[in-house]
Amino acid sequence: MSRYIALLKFTAQGAKNMKKSTSRAHAFDKLAARSGVKVEGQYWTMGRYDGVLILKADHEQKILRLLAGLAELGYVRTETMRAFIDKEFESLVV
What we know:
Layout: E1 2-10, H1 12-16, H2 21-34, E2 38-44, E3 51-57, H3 60-73, E4 76-83, H4 86-93
Antiparallel strand pairs: 1-3, 1-4, 2-3
């Protein structure tokens, strides 16, 4: 299974409804599970980004579909990248 990191920024709508952010996050966990995506971590952050998701799935399309659905809700914008653990990285650069 591949791992992905999604950096989140609140939209104006997300910032306005920030008090409900944790309940939306719990709903996202359930949706991800139904979509075949494992949420390894969800974090609220300070600085350039408002949050980080660590996701794992057997197909990139599942991640794309899930994050497209998240974007459609209008609370966050995402920037997503594929992440590799040490053994995966070593096999790529050898």
